[in-house]
Amino acid sequence: MSRKFRKSPPQGGRHLRDGPRQPIAFYFDFISPYAYLGSVGIERIAARHGREVDWRPMLLGISMFKVMGLKAVPDTPLKGTYAAHDWPRFARYLGIPHAPEARTQFAPLPAARAFTWQKERDAPLAKQLAQAVFRAHWGEGRDMSMPEVVAAEAAALGIDRAAILAGIEDETTKLRLRAHVDASLAKGVFGAPTFIVDGEMFWGADRLDQVDRWLATGGW
User: Fold this and answer.
1) Do 156 and 205 contact (CB within 8 A), yes or no?
2) May I ask the CATH class of domain 22-217?
């Protein structure tokens, strides 16, 4: 006997316009060039729509490698070669600085911990630090894997160099970053960049146009 199923109503939609204008949650990992692209794109889109962006660190080494059991993109046959060509092309499309020679394999933990430490003290300044780290690594090709180079970027923004170096190594910072990663997993975040707009999740820098339209229309 055949059975007819009724389609569930679409999630999102017109009701989004009626709720509070919450910040857009932006989940990122410094190791991803696509997160760099997304960091620039989402700020442009948010500015057009009068929205704030809440930067939230996650770690692909946990979500994709340990939880999902996937390889890093550069280590994935065919896909790695494509991505090495694709992300600089995407950067040119967005009109932002890019360094194709930037290291695709580096340690993102010092930068992630520095951001976490600074966000507890000054969230807007932490965002500026994250943007500086992204730009230095993926935009200029400077290896940002060492605490000292991250601290240099922080010092250029007026953040105390010794204090942030201590913060990177502080156990409280490490635990707080771990809590952020756990929270991202609880939200269902598995990749970077991920954007959550009024409860609706979009994964990937190639979804920026959809995020823009969602904000403009209230959803579909």
Assistant:
1) no
2) alpha beta
